[in-house]
Amino acid sequence: MPLTHRHAHRRARAAGRVIAAAALLAALQVRADEAAPAAPPAEPPTHSAMDAPLFYQLLIGEIELGNGQAGVAFQVLLDAARRTSDEELFKRVVNIALQARAGDQALMAARAWAETLPNSVDAHQSVVQLLALMNKPAEVPQPLTALLRIAPEVQRPGLIAALPRLFQRSPDPKSVLAALGPVLQAQTGALKPAALYAEARLSINAGENARALALTRELAAALPDGDDAMQLAVDLLPAEPQAEGLITERLKFRPDQHALRQAYARALVQAQRPVDAAREFRILTTATPDNPAPWLALGALELDLKHTTAAESALRESLKRFDTPAAGTETEIRARADGRQQAWLMLSQAAEQRGDLKAAEAALKKVDGNGLDVRYRRASLMARQGKLADARKLLQPAADASDADARTALLAEAQLLREQHDYAAAFGVLKTATERFSGDTDLIYEQAMMAEKLGQYDDMEALLRKVIEIKPDYHHAYNALGYSFADRNVRLPEAKQLIERALKLAPGEPVIVDSLGWVEFRLGNLPEAAKLLRQAHAGRPDAEIAAHLGEVLWASGQQDEARRVLAEAAQREPDNEALRETLGRLKVKP
């Protein structure tokens, strides 16, 4: 009877499986031969220890696996691995379970491997990795301790330092720290620095920043020239301002550590401290003048600070370096092209800031593509020329736009309307956005800000409290609500509590320090208000903070300093609403 195509296919598959099984058996034969001592030439050859039942067992296991019976194959091959004590066969069994997404079976096989071969580093490491993957930190100490005992000394620090990466996606980082902390604290000698680093990183993941800072200090003392403590300090900086001292102390004695300075500057940007970040990038432009990246970052910061002339100067310096032909990988070449695009976009924005729309248009023509950032700059120029309706059309998402692109486009349209002081239209756009993307805290927050601009304070409060309910660590919402109360001179004790909560979530952020200074002013604490507002203004000298500082200085009898602060702010941002209102009320000419 002739074979059907289906039967032929089955036989071909079976033949393939037999070949694969034969290859595995050959490999086992080679290892058996290699493991046996070399026999004298005169003696008969040494035969493999593999018997017929084992041969049959391995063959059946591979055939069952090929038939899609992973569970059967797992049991057959695991039994064979135990009988042969073969590392490669144990690895094969673990991989079979992983490919079948059977985590419990993979862990069972890895544990059997470690029990059969108690001195196998790979076996114990597999157990630890699988426990991390399955989020079972409480079971890790025993195999981890065994692993550190049997691993070669040179490998042990790396195994310890890798622990935070293994558990970085754990849904319960506090339990990870509780389980691994005692093991790490027990390490001494050459392993102590790696243990300090791992425990500090796990502490950061668990939100125990004070503990992480103490461990980072200990690590910095143990390895004064090491990089790990500085990486930890940079990551801790937004939450633990005292970590900054470790960084500045290192840079004081090692000013040539440019990578550390750049990471520090980025952390300052994240902490909303543009003045300090600009200072560090300025140092980098002097230390590494041929590198375009610090020039570009400095230009962006100066633009944010409304230092238009300084921004344009730095951006043009970055372009000189981006435009210099340089060899590199495809990724590096693409990064230079992207940097060039960003520089021209910001030069267009800078020209627009100083009212030179012609120069802004010319800079924009240097930019390739038609992404949202380019369209936004074009829309902004159109709006400045009275073509707001056309500008809004330019920002509309395409009919087939993804949700992410549509969300970004709606935010951009709302921002454009806000800049044009059309708060009602901006509120409408954001209301549409929050209805489409319910639960999006950023969109709800922006809608709340527009409600405040429209004087809809009850709506604003309800929206901000909704943000806090959805995301309790959203510090902007606490700050905005507290500031609104303070600015309207209502519910001042509650305002202070809200702002202090925001400051706890984002220590040292200038706009929050400004809010706290403003509520202290409303409470009549002029010295404390002046101190806080000076601190906020030093970190971020924008027009609104300057207006608050100027008013407090005026009320404190320091009119000359108040005039200077207000005049400098008016020179940078003459159209700022809060500043103009303060100048008018105090009858101060800019």
UniProtKB/TrEMBL annotation:
Specify the domain of life of the species encoding this protein.
Answer: Bacteria
Protein name from the UniProt record: Tetratricopeptide repeat protein
Cited PANTHER family: LIPOPOLYSACCHARIDE ASSEMBLY PROTEIN B, TPR REPEAT-CONTAINING PROTEIN PA4667
Each TPR repeat occupies one of these ranges, namely 543-576
Instruction: Please list the residue ranges that the record marks as compositionally biased, kind Basic and acidic residues.
Output: 569-584
Q: Where is the signal peptide?
A: 1-32
Q: Which UniProt keywords apply?
A: Repeat, Signal, TPR repeat
Q: Highest lineage ranks of the organism?
A: Bacteria, Pseudomonadati, Pseudomonadota, Betaproteobacteria, Burkholderiales
Disordered as annotated region, ranges? 569-590
Q: What SMART domains would the database entry show? A: TPR
